[in-house]
Structure formats: C-alpha cells, structure tokens
Design brief:
Elements (H helix, E strand, L loop, with lengths): L4 H9 L9 E2 L5 E4 L2 E5 L12 H14 L7 H5 L2 H14 L3 E5 L2 H12 L5 E5 L4 H9 L3 E5 L4 H9 L6 E6 L11 H11 L2 E5 L14 H5 L8 E5 L9 E5 L1 H10 L1 H4 L6 H16 L2 H19 L11 E7 L1 H13 L2 E2 L2 E2 L9 E6 L6 H12 L8
Parallel strand pairs: 3-12, 5-6, 5-7, 7-8, 8-9
Antiparallel strand pairs: 1-2, 2-3, 4-10, 9-10, 11-14, 13-14
Amino acid sequence: MKSLQPELERRSREHLYRRRRVSDGAQGTELSFDGRPMLVFCSNDYLGLAGHPQVVDALQQGALRYGAGSGAAHLVSGHSVAHHQLEEELAAFTGRPRALLFSTGYMANLGVMSALLGRADTVYQDRLNHASLIDGGLLSRAGFRRYRHADSGALREQLSRQTHGEALVASDGVFSMDGDIAPLPELAAMCRERGAWLMVDDAHGIGVLGKNGGGSLEHFRLGPADVPILMGTLGKALGTSGAFVAGSEALIETLIQQARSYIYTTACPPAVAEATRASLRLVQQEGWRRERLELLINRFRRGAEQLGLPLMDSQTPIQPLLAGTSQRALDWSGALERQGILVSAIRPPTVPEGSARLRVTLSAAHSESQVERLLDALARLPRARGG
C-alpha cells in the first residue's frame, strides 16, 4: 500500500493544498468563519435566495409534511408529490415537455452521457468545461475530443472528421471559472448541420441570464430544437440543492431507464423540492433581482477597470481577477481576508497552469456599499495593478 503523504506534501509545496472553512449562520453576504465575521464574495447564491424567508418556510413546511428524507430512490418509493410537481414546474419554466431531478449537477452530467453514449460514439467538449462534464465524457466510454475554448471553428474541424457513431457536443452555458458565455448559437447551428446532440450545462446561467431568468438559452433566444439537452442546477441562483435535466419525452424516459446516477441513488429530500418550488416562483416573479445584479456587476467592473485590476472578460456575476501564479492568488486572497473579505483563490487543476485567479462572485443581495468596500480592499492588494 503506497503512502499518501508525499502527494499531500507536494500539493502544499506548490501552493495547491485546499482547506475547508467552517461557517456559522444562514447563507448571506456576511458570514462568520471560525468565529470571525467576513464579507463574502465567493458564493454562488447569485440572487440571494438561499436564506429567503419564503424558501426557508417552504423547506420547514415540507419537512413537517414529508419528513427529513425521501427514504428511497425515485424508482422505488422515494418519488414524492413534491418531486413530481417540481419537475413539472421546471419543464414549464424551461419550455420543454419534461424535466428530471438529479441529486447534484455532477450526477446529472454523468447520468446523461452514460445513458446516451457508447464506445462507437464521440463526445466533443470545450476545453474549459466543468469537471463533471469532462468526467461524464470520459466515463461514458465514448471517444473523447476537446476543442479550444469557445472556438466554433476548431469544433467544426473535429466534427468533420467523425465517420461513424453518434456525436454529442457538451458545453457550459456560463463557464464557471471565467464567467464568459459559450457561443451557443454557433454550436447549435453546427450540431443541427451535423445531426449531433447539443448538451448545455447552464448551472451558472439559470436564474441569472435572460429577462425571465431562463439562462443562457433565453439570453440567445434558443429553444429545445437548438439545444435538445439542458442541464441546470438548483444550488446556485435558485439557492437550494440538486439539479435537473430538461428535454423531450423520449430523452427523459431514456434517462429514467438508463441513467445509473439517477437510478441507483436516494432521491433528494422532498422538503428541498418544496423549497426549490418556492425559489423558482421568486426567480420568475422578482425580475428586479436580475436587474440589481446587473447594476452591481457594472459597478464592480467600472471600479476594477479604474483601478487597473486584471479583469477577465465577463458580463456575468463571476468576475475573475487573473493573478497568474498560485502563490500570488493565495497572497491576494489572504490580504483580502485580513481586511474581513472572503474571496477564494482558484488554482490548478481547477484552472490551467499560469492562470490562477481570484474568483469574485456577486449577488443581488450585496449592497452597493459592500461592492465599494471590496473595491477599496482590492486597491490595496500587493502588486495588484497590472497583474
């Protein structure tokens, strides 16, 4: 049996070691970590719904009605009225015939690819796709190809060389570490031309982009015919937990029959489904949250540009500041933490070598004064100007 310690020591030497912080209190823009109050700019609670009273109340009422857990897998006895109603509401929200709940986005992506692909097929992925898409493709046993980030021409060239089997193109809608939006209209046109599946992981777009919060697809006015497979998560803008896949009747029935990560796991608690139903209503009813979020994004970008900070090109709540080295990213994160502000340092292998960064994320729950406080703190970062 090999020793695990050398690899841990290597990670520490190369500034790649990860540590958990212990928070105390409900999700919000201010949290206590290890007893110290912090202003948080690294949460994915983009609309500020995780602690919303209506969402919390729905969770509590759901627990009183259904108990703390589902008790079994969906295909055994764990599929409740709450789950079923949420699936119907997600289908209506996304404009698709059906939706299917998964316990996590990771499990959804693995489930889709394992159900639809085999050894004779090929999956094509953007080089900066989320790890769950990458792992789903690798575990599907299909041929695996990666194309240059957001480069439709490179994808077209790869697709033209496929001679047999099915093709599935998978892309993030909003890229989780860069914050940019995939060129979905070009991908959709290419997939229609080649008769390929297009699957979009819109974990960071759902609830945030589009007038109605419909995500990357609404942003580009794309429909089910353009993107047959849509995956969205519930633990970001919707503020709860879990994920879903939305698509045709045949797609969802195929996943129910063949997606191992759906079949062989306990269903999420029905109380969480009830909380998500409440948050989904708020996403649709309270468009002011997206308007406020856009205002804060624009204010942050103006301020960061005035300070000469190394901003990346993003119009979403994900606002990365490129540090380059892992050590510098950690130094910047530590400097902010000493000023009472929490922003995570993102390092390889989450991002490519040489592109370590601070991943600033904004929420509709942030105040303008909190954004100003962040900008003031960033202005004092060591060697922040000019990268």
